[in-house]
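Retry 2 of 3 after timeout on previous attempt. Resubmitting structure tokens to design endpoint.
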């Protein structure tokens, strides 16, 4: 019987583990340096309020990939959920992502979809050809005023740099709509697991041939002899002991508050002004509208540069990072017996559904070659 080691118990690691033991005659050890499974998707009931809290910030499952959706539903029931985000700017509440309501409210107008499209086209910076960065992307598609109100300050707070230093792809994650659809995502499938994400991970990893070892770090001292293959989902620079330098990440941290009733009436409210030190406030009882709780717990989210002791969240992918990444990728290619996958091991900005899709593809490829 083959033995496989999986480093990391987030979606990449848990999906690979589940696929391997159910498709091959093998034993799998999953290690994670944290004391819990689920990586950044981990959820836990708050002891003071009973609310299911997304420990590392809001995770709303959304996808257009039916294979991923069919797969993940085998491990837990999802309730339909539509993420409707609000944003506060200069004492007013607007709808986010930018839609017809945002545009009409911001400019004090009652435009219809066609008029709004023409109006916003008129605001766009025509001097920009192919946008080379976040700022140019915004100036080209929504013009200076909407950009400065809703993106500039928020992005500076979240990423700690000028939006002109960031890739245009970050802004492309968000739609701009000329109707009143205020769904934060474009993907047709959207939901939240009824019993939280941790329950899904418990089910993914529930097999007699999977052993999970928590609070176990993968470092030089870790003995990999005896494993036929290693699936590594930790940070790629840490694997190589930072020999080519550190890749930059933003991290977030939360300030927790508990109060009675309903604090803000919505799951997520963003704050785009630079004078407000946090980027957003999330109130987690609104992620489970099918539950009822007298008390409520909400978190103010702050962003900062990642230091050695912080959890890396968002890969910055600045040009200096991409040069360092190339060196690590060259080393990965030379390694035999390892597969690198997931957000940290590939240094990519990935949503949950991307991570699951990648793990399904990688496990299929591996299983086919192992048979
Ligand atoms: N963004 C912004 N204002 C907002 C929401 C998002 O400026 O109210 C920017 C910000 O730079 C963010 C990017 O748009 O990183 C993409 O937003 P998304 O919600 O996809 O980011 P996530 O937090 O999911 O990574």
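Retry 2 succeeded. Sequence:
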């Amino acid at each position: 019987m083959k033995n496989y080691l999986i480093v990391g118990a987030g979606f990449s690691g848990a999906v690979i583990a589940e696929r391997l033991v159910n498709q091959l005659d093998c034993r799998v050890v999953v290690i994670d340096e944290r004391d819990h499974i689920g990586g950044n998707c981990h959820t836990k009931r708050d002891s003071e309020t009973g609310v299911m809290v997304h420990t590392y910030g809001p995770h709303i499952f959304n996808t257009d990939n039916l294979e991923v959706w069919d797969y993940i539903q085998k491990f837990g029931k999802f309730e339909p959920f539509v993420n409707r985000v609000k944003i506060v700017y200069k004492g007013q509440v607007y709808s986010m992502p930018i839609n017809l309501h945002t545009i009409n409210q911001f400019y004090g107008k009652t435009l219809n979809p066609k008029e709004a499209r023409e109006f916003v086209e008129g605001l766009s910076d025509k001097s920009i050809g192919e946008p080379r960065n976040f700022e140019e992307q915004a100036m080209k598609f929504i013009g200076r005023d909407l950009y400065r109100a809703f993106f500039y300050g928020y992005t500076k707070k979240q990423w700690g740099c000028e939006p002109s230093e960031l890739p245009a792809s970050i802004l492309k994650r968000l739609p701009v709509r000329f109707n009143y659809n205020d769904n934060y995502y474009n993907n047709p499938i959207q939901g939240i697991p009824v019993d939280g994400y941790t329950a899904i991970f418990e089910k993914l990893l529930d097999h007699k041939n999977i052993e999970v070892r928590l609070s176990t770090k993968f470092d030089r001292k870790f003995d990999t002899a005896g494993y036929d293959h290693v699936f590594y989902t930790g940070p790629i620079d840490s694997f190589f002991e930072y020999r080519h330098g550190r890749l930059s990440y933003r991290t977030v941290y939360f300030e927790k508050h508990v109060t009675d009733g309903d604090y803000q009436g919505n799951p997520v409210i963003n704050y785009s002004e630079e004078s407000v030190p946090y980027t957003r406030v999330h109130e987690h009882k609104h992620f489970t509208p099918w539950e009822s709780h007298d008390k409520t717990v909400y978190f103010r989210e702050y962003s900062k540069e990642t230091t050695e002791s912080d959890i890396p969240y968002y890969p910055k992918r600045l040009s200096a990072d991409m040069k360092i990444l190339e060196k690590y990728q060259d080393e990965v290619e030379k390694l035999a017996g390892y597969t690198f996958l997931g957000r940290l091991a590939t240094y990519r900005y990935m949503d949950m559904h991307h991570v699951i899709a990648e793990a399904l593809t990688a496990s299929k490829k591996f299983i086919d070659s192992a048979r």
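Attempt log closed. Residues 87, 96, 150-151, 154-155, 158, 170-171, 173-174, 270, 272 surround uridine-5'-diphosphate (CB under 6 Å).
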